[in-house]
Specification:
This protein is mostly helical. It has one domain. Helix content is 51%, strand content 3%. The protein is built from twelve helices and two strands, in the order αααααααααββααα. It has helices at residues 39-50, 55-69, 79-106, 133-161, 174-199, 202-207, 228-235, 248-259, 261-265, 285-293, 305-308, 317-332; strands spanning 271-274, 277-281. A two-stranded antiparallel ribbon has the order 1-2. α4 packs across α7.
Length: 333
Amino acid sequence: MKNAEGDEVLIPEGKSKVWNYHPNLPVPNSPVFRFPTRILFVLNWFRRGWLGLSATTLWVTLAFVTYNWFQPSLEHWSIYAIGMMFLRNLALITIIAGGLHLWLWVMCRQGDQLKFDSREMMRDNGTFTFRNQVLDNMFWSIAWGVPIWTLYEVIYFRAVDTGLAPTFQFGDNPVWFILFFWVILLWKGFHFYWVHRFLHWPPYYRIAHAVHHRNLNTGPWSGLSMHPLETLPYLSSLLIHLVVPSNPVHLLFHTYALTLNPALAHSGFDALLVRDKRQLELGEFFHQLHHRYFECNYGTPEMPWDKWFATYHNGTEEDTRSTRERKKRMYTK
């Protein structure tokens, strides 16, 4: 039996002793960087990600809508314009993360179907701010995540309006305009892997990344729940737009892939069900494994950095044992 990426399925999707639900195992990476190249699987991967309802197409659409109807000019510094950008971003994360939390965790509209971890969000636990996991996640996301997210956008749009950031329009190069969306995802995966490895450096981990890793069992608000000293380097991926020619729509797409997509990826569910049908792929079991076992899967499924640097966990018991052994060696050092 093979999955959509052409990999042999060792363990079919279902329940296990560890997980309430898991997808087919081993967890696959993108087929784009595999050799020899399998054209049909690559084309199918692009079709599912770019030609139907997916997180990618949502962020592309939202980027166009935001830029054309909800982006104030920063040609002249204006507290009002900056405030409107902050409120816009606050509304977006509230709608996406709050809406998913309401549907999946409060109203429980799909029960435990496709839910990775059977546990509920933690309450009355001193590990979390306000002793409540959801309130903790909302606090770090709103108090620090949204302001820093807005800061990066302000820097970029101010640079565009003053001619400091190189830009181009669709008519200048239509093919590159479209391809650049995919290039952004590749750059995001590369940047995230190495920043994430740095965040796991013990001294910095204790100061910053430990806030995010309070969430062994994640929910939609967990995605952007970070210490500001983590949010700043995490979002620094956006600085590439100050150097490489792009369009404001590319910047907004990149921003949403970094700030809103984590709400989906940390939702705790594999997909959004409506009338028992999969409508939207949500959580990345690949990253769920990172929250459970810590020292693995630092990157994203779009790029096989973890494969190349031997930090990959494919969800099998064999990889769990090897990850724990590597973790012991790391902590012994």
